[in-house]
Amino acid sequence: MISRFEAKAWLRRYSLRKRQSIPASIRVRESKKIVSEFVRTAPYKKANVIALYLGFGSEVQTDSLIRRAWADGKTVLIPMTDKGLHRPYFCEYKKG
Description:
The protein has a 3-stranded mixed beta sheet with strand order 1-2-3. The protein has 4 helices and 3 strands. By secondary structure, it is of the alpha+beta class. It is globular. The chain starts with a helix and ends with a strand.
């Protein structure tokens, strides 16, 4: 029997491989759809501050959502970590 830690590590590797197997053109298209749907939600419309990650590789691309949030006058926060810290904290992400 495998441990929960091993199962979690396997699931992460499996999910990453599956996500990386999606063609780039589909990832771009689906990222756009996610952003389009997200900005129409009531929580987004009501929010003054939103927390996002900076998408890279095969992750959902968040750059257009970040630009949209700035255009909508929202403050954007991104998670940061310092070496040795076990928890991320959030910092404001500004243009430029």
